[in-house]
């Protein structure tokens, strides 16, 4: 009788251990399983086309890589400043006309700036705070902002300015995506490109509603028609990587807790742990200062 009781007790223990093991493998609250197996959206699209990054989901999609090169640091900074041109213009137009599309898409551009800064934070790069609205260290960028601000009156022309800026982004981002090697930079840029396409279509809708027409400045008519024919698009979903690490410190170059790169207000990289600095200036359409012709 005693022997039977022991056998039954052992059987119950075995079953319990088996169940516990199964629970550990399939429990959705287990951090390592949740992080590695959960895909997430990076961009969110509103009904008016305003497209923003779900910022909390950006870094988990990043993978561990080599540190950024000077060219890559300067490229990210140039992208951030270009997003600032759009943001400052749209907020200025909202101040002039009080039209919500300018405010909504201006807020989206502010969000895009923060998305580029996610890359700097992940790679532990020092970067300057944004300058005040409408002010740029780069002379070319300042002239662009000033000229487009003057063109943006009345509101129909302001929407045409928006369309031009977003068209420029679409074309430039498609070009640089051909040569971007770093997978984390690629994630940000391909979603910025998708956001620009949505904002472009939103601008065209408002131009049409106001009785105007838009002639593409950089796209072919075929490219223009293909983009306009598609509604607002969401981005693809990304798997979480790197066990949710918020920095790139564990990459093969290693990290010692110190900043591993920096960029100044002029967009010059003055520190890089991966190669020489500043960046090369002759990589037209690729990365660094060559992006968009030397900005």
Q: Give the number of helices.
A: 8
What does the largest sheet look like? 2 strands, antiparallel
Report low-confidence residues grouped into runs of 5 or more. Answer: 5-35
- Tell me the series of helices and strands, N- to C-terminal: HHEEEHHHHHHEEE
Rg calc: 24 Å
Q: Give the name of the CATH superfamily of the largest domain.
A: Ferritin, core subunit, four-helix bundle
Structural class of the secondary structure composition?
mainly alpha
The largest sheet has its strands arranged as 1-4
Using the coordinates shown, work out and report the CATH topology of the largest domain. Answer: Ferritin
Characterization of this structure:
- This protein is mainly alpha-helical.
- 52% of the residues lie in helices and 6% in strands.
- It has eight helices and six strands.
- It has helices at 2-26, 31-37, 70-97, 100-122, 139-151, 155-176, 183-209, 221-228; strands spanning 39-41, 43-45, 51-53, 237-239, 261-263, 269-272.
- The strands form three sheets. The protein has a two-stranded antiparallel ribbon with strand order 1-4. It has a two-stranded antiparallel sheet with strand order 2-3. The protein has a two-stranded antiparallel sheet with strand order 5-6.
Topology:
Blueprint: H1 2-26, H2 31-37, E1 39-41, E2 43-45, E3 51-53, H3 70-97, H4 100-122, H5 139-151, H6 155-176, H7 183-209, H8 221-228, E4 237-239, E5 261-263, E6 269-272
Helix pairs in contact: 3-4, 3-5, 3-6, 4-7, 6-7
Search tags:
295 residues, 2 domains, 52% helix, Ferritin, 6% strand, two-stranded antiparallel ribbon, mainly alpha, two-stranded antiparallel sheet, globular, single chain, 8 helices
